[in-house]
Amino acid sequence: MYVAVKGGEKAIKSSLKLLENKRKETGTKSIEINQIKEQLSFAVDRVINEGSLYDKDLSALAIKQSQGDLVEAIFLLRAYRTTLERYAYSTAIDTSKIIIKRRISASFKDIPGGQILGPTFDYSHRLLDFSLMKEDEINSYENINNQEPKNKEFPSVIDYLNNENLLEQEINNLKDNPFDVTRDPMKFPASRDQWMQILARGDEGFLLGLSYSAIRGFGSKGTHPFVGEIKYGIVDIFISPDELGFEICIGSIEISECQMIDQFEGNKNTPPQFTRGYGLTFGYNERKSMAISIVDRALKSEGYGEEIKFPIQDHEFVLYHADNVEAQGFVTHLKLPHYVDFQGELNLIRKLRNEILQGKKL
Description:
Layout: H1 9-24, H2 33-39, H3 41-50, H4 56-65, H5 70-81, E1 99-104, H6 159-163, H7 192-201, H8 204-215, E2 226-239, E3 248-264, E4 273-282, H9 286-299, H10 315-321, H11 324-332, H12 339-361
Antiparallel strand pairs: 1-2, 2-3, 3-4
Helix pairs in contact: 2-4, 3-4, 3-5, 4-5, 7-9, 8-9
């Protein structure tokens, strides 16, 4: 990562001062962390997800410090994360026990427990609401009782297909020591636990573009995926300390989960069936969890014996370019001094041009 700059110390200090002044130049009251956390909740959730640190206060702080530049905020949170001590690995979460805030299926109309719309932009008209410019921040909140979180178990919607043996069976291959992308370099061919971690931390825009390319025909088979189930809610987190020998709950987090259904025409060993892609994120990141599930299915193409010919199917292409912190570092480092490199290129071009021009004169 290119972050160090050598140069005039006084000029650099002045630049940092100007950056701080830019945040305050209008003379308005400084925005509070709680305001960011509550009123910019989607931005906060994106930063905790791609920063891979579940702390909404620190996410809001990073957004404030970065003046709303979410990629910079993700960089700040990711950098802070590296200073924290690792105490334990959590056990696998059980999303069937999620406290539901939103749960829908686009594949089945009638599902156990019903469709729970929850908070979503899906049914809004996408028209600017100018009343927000004069909103009474204290009295604008309206409690909607029928949309309160539902604390009960809901069977998985795609069990309908499982019961008829029409959906590929997920193999439970949980490892005692799963691949940790924050501590170990990537390995290829990538295992699914590796790529799911990278996708969860990956840039939403990049993954959205990849998933769109697959839907338009530049994916596994150019098929139309179906949303089997999307869930958003609260789930408990457990750890199992060696000295105790049993699990203890250490808190709860918000997650978004998507199970995407796709077609598979079958092969010599497998009859035609539905396949699945899976996406899970911190916070309310429904759009990203959908994108992850489409990319996940495409990355499994080789296992289905499908031809690998599109970027979304290429493990190295997807996994090496999904991380926005790394991408930002390599793109923005181009702003740093490259005087010597460019002079070398400039001298080479001059030399080649002179040789060609002299050859033409001869």
